[in-house]
C-alpha cells in the first residue's frame, strides 16, 4: 500500500503494515492504507527538514506560493463531489455536509493565498536618516500538522494552507480513522507543482506515527487539533525542545437562551447546534442554558423535534444526521449518558441506539436530551462529543441578576471554545457576549464561520488561533533587519591602542 508520501515519493510502511478503513455508517470496506512506523515518521521529518534547509520553497516569492494555493482551490471546485465522497465514506457523515465542507476548504485556500500575497512585512521609522529598519516574515521551519477525524480535510486545510502560504515545509498526520482526503490533498499538491519534500504524509496511530512528529528535534512547530488529553501530552513533550505549539482542543460550549429571544429561531438552532454531525463538532452547543420562565416551552419542543430526527448513512437522502465515528466512541457516549443519569440528570429522549436492521452495522446513537442538569455534573463539564444535550436553567430577580446568572453558568467550564447568546434585546446580547470567555460568540445564530475571522479557544480549549490573520502568523517568525547605510565606529570603548602609540594617524 503506497500511501505514505515522503520526499516526493509514494511508499509503503517500512514494516509493510496496513490498516483497513470501514465506513462507520454500515461497516463496508472503504480503503486499505499504509500504517506508518515511528521510523517512517522520522523519515518524513528528515525529508521536510531537507526541503526547508536546502529547497526552494521557503524563498519562493509569496505571490507564487499563493498561486499554488489557488490552483488547489480550483481543483477542489473541479473535484468537489469526489472529495466529498471520500470524506463521507471515511466519516459516515452526510454527503451534502461533506460537499459544504469542500466549499469551506476551498475558501480557506483562497483566503490564505490572499493574505500571504498581500503582506510583505513593514518598514519601521528609526528616526535616523541613514538607518533603514524593516520587519519581514520568515517561515517557522518544519511543521508537524496533526489533525482529528471529525472534519478531516477541513481541519487539515486550516493548517496546510497557512503553513504553505508562509513558506514552511510540513509533515501531516491525519487521524488514523480518516486518511482518504489527506491522500487526495498530497496528490493535488504534488501535481500542482509543490517541490518534493515540502509536503509529507504519514498515516497511522498517534502513539506510533504521531509521537515522533512531536519529539523530533528536526521539527520547529507542532500544530495540533484534537482532544484535551492529547493536547496536554503534546505540549509537555514539545517543551523539551522548546517547539512552537498551536493547540485547538475541545469545547463544552454554552448556548444561552433568554426569555426575550426569538424562540422559534433559538429552538431550531439549538437542534443544529448540538445534533449536527451527531454532536461530533468541537464547537457543538452541547450545554443549553435557558431562562427558567421559558424552560418548559423550549425543552418540550426540543424533545419533540429531537425524537423526529432521521438517522442514516451518507447517501441516504432522507437522513438528517449520521453515525458516530467508531464503536469505541459510541461506547464512550453511552457511558457518559449512564453516568449522567446516575448523577441525577433526567433523560427526556434518546439515551439508546436506534432500533431497526438499517442501523445494525453502523455506530448510530439517538439524539439525547438530559434535563435538569447541575453545572458540576460530569455530563455538563466534560465533552461527550456525541448527540447529547444537557439542560441547565437560570433566573434572576432583575435584568442584571438574570444576565449575571447566565454568564456565571456559561463561563463555569475549563473550556472556552465557542458559545451563543439568544435575545431580541441587542443591548443585552452585546453585554452578555462581551463577558463570555469563549473564542467565538454567536449572537442569535449558531455554527457559521468565515475563513477571514479567527477561530480558537480561551482557557483549556487551546493555544493560538487558526484562520483570520492570526492563523497565518502562527506559521511565521518576524525577523527584524537593521541596515546602517553609513557605517561608523560606535566609539563606546576608547581606542587605547592608538593613545599608547603616541597619536593617531588620522
Ligand atoms: P485525538 O486527540 O484522539 O487525536 C487527534 C490526532 O492526534 C489524531 O491524528 C491522533 O492520531 C493524534 N495523536 C494521538 N495521540 C498522539 C500523540 N501522543 N502524539 C501525536 N499525535 C497523537 O482527537 P480525536 O478523537 O481525533 O478528535 C476529537 C477531538 O478533537 C475532540 O476533543 C474535539 O473537540 C477536538 N477538535 C477540536 C477542534 C477545534 O477547532 N478546537 C476541531 C475539531 C476537533
Structure report:
The protein is α/β, with parallel strands linked by helices and 506 residues long. Helices cover 39% and strands 19% of the residues. The protein has helices at 38-54, 62-78, 80-91, 95-118, 152-165, 180-191, 206-215, 228-239, 263-275, 295-307, 327-342, 378-381, 399-410, 426-435, 470-473, 496-500, and strands at residues 4-6, 9-11, 18-22, 29-34, 122-124, 131-139, 142-146, 169-173, 199-201, 221-225, 244-248, 254-257, 287-291, 346-349, 368-371, 388-394, 418-422, 440-443, 462-463, 476-484. It has a seven-stranded mixed beta sheet, with helices on both faces. The radius of gyration is 26 Å and the shape is globular. The structure holds nicotinamide-adenine-dinucleotide.
Which spans have pLDDT < 50 for at least 5 consecutive residues? none
* Shape verdict: globular
Distinct ligands: nicotinamide-adenine-dinucleotide
Q: How large is the count of helical segments?
A: 16
- Average pLDDT number: 97
Strand content: 15-25%
In angstroms, what separates the terminal alpha carbons? 76 Å
> Helical amount among residues, as a percent range?
25-40%
* Biggest sheet, spatial arrangement of strands: 14-15-16-13-12-17-18
Number of strands: 20
Largest sheet: 7 strands, mixed
User: What is the CA-atom radius of gyration, in angstroms?
Assistant: 26 Å
Q: Which structural class should the secondary elements be placed in?
A: alpha/beta
**Oligomeric state, counting identical vs distinct chains:** single chain
Amino acid at each position: 500500500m503506497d500511501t505514505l508520501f515522503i520526499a516526493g515519493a509514494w511508499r509503503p510502511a517500512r514494516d509493510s503494515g496496513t490498516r483497513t478503513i470501514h465506513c462507520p455508517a454500515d461497516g463496508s470496506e472503504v480503503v486499505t492504507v499504509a500504517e506508518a512506523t515511528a521510523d517512517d515518521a522520522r523519515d518524513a521529518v528528515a525529508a521536510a527538514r531537507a526541503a526547508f534547509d536546502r529547497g526552494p520553497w521557503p524563498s519562493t516569492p509569496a505571490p507564487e506560493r499563493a498561486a499554488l494555493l489557488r490552483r488547489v482551490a480550483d481543483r477542489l471546485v473541479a473535484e468537489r463531489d469526489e472529495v466529498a465522497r471520500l470524506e463521507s465514506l471515511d466519516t459516515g457523515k452526510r454527503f451534502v455536509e461533506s460537499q459544504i465542507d469542500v466549499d469551506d476548504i476551498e475558501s480557506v485556500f483562497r483566503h490564505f493565498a490572499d493574505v500571504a500575497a498581500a503582506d510583505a512585512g513593514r518598514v519601521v521609522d528609526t528616526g535616523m536618516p541613514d538607518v533603514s529598519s524593516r520587519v519581514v516574515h520568515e517561515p517557522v521551519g518544519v511543521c508537524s500538522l496533526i489533525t482529528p477525524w471529525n472534519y478531516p480535510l477541513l481541519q487539515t486545510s486550516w493548517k496546510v494552507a497557512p503553513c504553505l502560504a508562509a513558506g514552511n515545509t510540513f509533515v501531516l498526520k491525519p487521524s488514523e480513522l480518516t486518511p482518504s482526503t489527506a491522500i487526495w490533498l498530497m496528490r493535488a499538491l504534488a501535481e500542482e507543482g509543490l517541490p518534493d519534500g515540502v509536503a509529507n504524509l504519514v498515516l497511522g496511530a498517534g502513539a506510533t506515527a504521531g509521537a515522533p512528529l512531536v519529539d523530533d528535534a528536526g521539527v520547529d512547530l507542532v500544530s495540533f487539533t484534537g482532544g484535551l488529553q492529547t493536547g496536554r501530552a503534546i505540549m509537555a513533550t514539545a517543551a523539551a525542545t522548546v517547539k512552537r505549539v498551536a493547540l485547538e482542543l475541545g469545547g463544552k460550549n454554552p448556548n444561552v437562551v433568554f426569555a426575550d429571544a426569538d424562540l422559534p429561531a433559538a429552538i431550531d438552532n439549538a437542534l443544529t447546534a448540538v445534533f449536527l454531525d451527531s454532536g461530533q463538532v468541537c464547537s457543538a452547543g452541547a450545554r443549553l442554558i435557558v431562562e427558567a420562565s421559558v424552560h418548559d416551552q423550549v425543552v418540550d419542543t426540543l424533545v419533540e423535534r429531537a425524537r423526529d430526527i432521521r438517522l442514516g448513512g451518507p447517501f441516504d437522502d432522507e437522513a438528517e444526521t449520521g453515525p458516530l465515528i467508531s464503536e469505541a466512541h459510541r461506547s464512550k457516549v453511552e457511558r457518559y449518558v449512564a453516568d449522567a443519569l446516575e448523577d441525577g440528570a433526567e433523560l427526556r429522549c434518546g439515551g439508546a441506539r436506534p432500533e431497526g436492521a438499517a442501523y445494525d452495522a453502523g455506530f448510530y446513537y439517538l439524539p439525547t436530551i438530559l434535563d435538569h442538569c447541575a453545572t458540576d455534573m460530569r455530563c455538563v463539564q466534560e465533552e461527550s462529543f456525541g448527540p447529547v444535550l444537557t439542560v441547565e436553567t437560570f433566573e434572576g430577580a432583575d435584568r442584571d441578576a438574570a444576565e449575571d446568572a447566565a454568564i456565571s453558568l456559561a463561563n463555569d467550564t475549563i473550556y472556552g471554545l465557542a458559545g451563543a447568546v439568544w435575545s431580541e434585546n441587542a443591548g443585552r446580547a452585546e453585554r452578555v457576549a462581551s463577558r463570555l470567555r469563549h473564542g467565538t460568540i454567536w449572537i442569535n445564530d449558531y455554527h457559521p464561520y468565515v475563513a477571514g475571522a479567527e477561530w480558537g479557544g480561551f482557557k483549556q480549549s487551546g493555544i493560538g488561533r487558526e484562520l483570520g490573520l492570526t492563523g497565518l502568523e502562527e506559521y511565521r517568525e518576524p525577523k527584524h533587519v537593521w541596515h546602517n547605510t553609513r557605517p561608523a565606529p560606535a566609539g563606546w570603548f576608547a581606542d587605547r591602542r592608538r593613545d599608547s602609540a603616541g597619536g593617531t594617524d588620522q
